[in-house]
């Protein structure tokens, strides 16, 4: 339960389902995130490497600037890379946004290696867990 200035609230999986309609059936997205190098991961999965990282996050603006349009003559690999970028923008800007909606964690990109398998994951529970985490961080009183 979150105690807000205007009252109390609790978010449930049903709430997430009503809002965004993601499935709960499937493998849960858990486990530690280990990457030998985010540059190599981005090169492989996105076909482009951000000019800078913020830890293990990239700027949403970089995704927007570098993946605005796709040409009709692109290869299947490039189409998959563009699809990963589009999904990553949805994750960072809507589903699992930080409080400023300006960064997205690259751990979500690792879930998009195989796009078919990514569709079978329990994204709803991951969205709820992220919502709880962000609400807890937002509720921490500032120390003067």
From TrEMBL:
Origin organism lineage: Eukaryota, Viridiplantae, Streptophyta, Embryophyta, Tracheophyta
InterPro entries to which the protein is assigned, alphabetical: AminoTfrase-like_pln_mobile, MAIN-like
Annotated signal peptide: none
Top-level taxon of the source organism: Eukaryota
Residues covered by the Aminotransferase-like plant mobile domain: 2-138
UniProt source species: Gossypium arboreum (Tree cotton)
Pfam families documented for this protein: PMD (PF10536)
Name of the featured protein: Aminotransferase-like plant mobile domain-containing protein
């Amino acid at each position: 339960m979150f105690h807000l200035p205007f009252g109390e609230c609790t978010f449930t999986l049903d709430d997430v389902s009503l809002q965004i309609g993601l499935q709960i059936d499937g493998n849960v997205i858990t486990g530690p995130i280990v990457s030998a190098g985010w540059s190599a991961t981005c090169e492989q999965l996105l076909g482009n490497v951000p000019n800078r990282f913020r830890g293990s996050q990239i700027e949403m603006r970089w995704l927007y600037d570098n993946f605005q349009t796709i040409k009709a003559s692109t290869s299947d690999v490039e189409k998959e890379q563009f699809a990963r970028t589009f999904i990553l923008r949805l994750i960072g800007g809507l589903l699992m946004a930080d409080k400023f909606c300006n960064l997205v964690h690259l751990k979500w990109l690792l879930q998009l290696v195989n796009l078919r398998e990514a569709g079978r994951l329990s994204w709803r529970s991951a969205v709820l867990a992220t919502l709880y985490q962000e609400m807890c961080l937002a509720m921490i009183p500032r120390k003067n």
